[in-house]
Design brief:
- By secondary structure, the chain is mainly alpha-helical.
- The protein is about 80% helix and about 0% strand.
- The protein contains 5 helices and no strands.
- The relative contact order is 0.12.
Length: about 290
């Protein structure tokens, strides 16, 4: 009875979210070379299960690592886009400030020219007025002299009057020449003063623009520095996350391997005993079994 008892194959299915019996067999047939933990302690079924399970764990880990990489890359892209937008805002603000300075300088120069023209006109008007007064005074004095009747035959008195009139005209001419000369000097001074003022406006504007440029450059450098630090932080966070995944999945590998090893441990074959010793140690019921 004992000899005829059929051997019953116990079908056990390894329970794990990383294991599918049918797909495991297909995978095992495709790849026989096992790497990593030694499988010498596993039976053939255990090797097949471990090979497939390990691959699924590896795939899951790779997917999560890729997810972390995508998060890292997305964050870095966002940081760079934000930094670029900030730099564009800085450049735009710099352009606006410099355009405002240019317009302000232009307005100030126009104002200087307006004041200059007004001063020149005032000098010219005052000069003309002074000359007119001189001429009027001269003409009035000449008219007064001419109104004095000189009896005929007094040529000496006529000559004296003629000399006085000539002197009045020469003095008037000399006075007007001096007024013209003074007006010319005053006008030159006004023009020089206006030119100097406009040169200073240009110089001040140039300095302010240079200061704005330096400030913008400093701000852009700060943005670049902050971007570099932020990107470094994101990359370090990714490294930390990957290290956590490596550690976590290393434990998962070990846990799954330990479970498989406990269920599919290879049974060591015992050495065959000699026939003589076998007879000596045969079971007492073997005779009846053979019968």
């Amino acid at each position: 009875f004992l000899m005829d008892e059929p051997k019953v194959a116990v079908l056990r299915h390894y329970a794990s979210p990383y294991y599918d019996p049918q797909k495991a067999h297909e995978y095992y047939m495709r790849t026989r070379e096992l790497k990593g933990r030694s499988t010498t302690s596993l039976n053939d079924e255990g090797k097949k299960i471990w090979s497939y399970t390990k691959n699924n764990i590896k795939s899951e880990k790779a997917a999560k690592v890729k997810e972390e990489q995508e998060k890292r890359d997305q964050k870095i892209t966002e940081l760079r886009e934000k930094a670029e937008a900030t730099k564009e805002q800085i450049s735009s603000r710099l352009k606006e400030l410099n355009e405002a300075l240019t317009q302000n300088a232009s307005d100030r120069k126009k104002s200087i020219d307006t004041d200059k023209d007004s001063d020149l006109e005032e000098i010219e008007k005052e000069s003309s007025s002074q000359k007119e007064r001189i001429d009027n005074k001269k003409d009035a004095e000449i008219e007064r002299l001419m109104a004095i009747e000189i009896p005929s035959g007094l040529s000496k008195r006529v000559a004296e009057r003629t000399a006085k009139i000539a002197k009045l005209r020469n003095d008037a001419k000399s006075d007007k020449a001096k007024i013209s000369s003074d007006a010319k000097t005053d006008k030159a001074s006004v023009r020089t003063d206006a030119t100097n003022k406009k040169v200073k406006v240009s110089s001040d504007t140039k300095e302010e623009k240079a200061e704005n440029q330096a400030n913008a450059k400093s701000e852009r450098a700060k943005v670049s520095s902050e971007l570099k630090a932020a990107v470094k932080s994101v990359r370090e966070a990714y490294k930390a996350a990957k290290a956590d995944l490596d550690s976590s999945y290393e434990q998962t590998y070990q846990d799954e391997f330990d479970k498989i090893q406990s269920e599919y441990k290879k049974v060591k074959k015992s050495k065959k005993k000699s026939s003589s010793s076998s007879k000596k140690t045969s079971h007492p019921l073997s005779y009846y079994i053979r019968k």
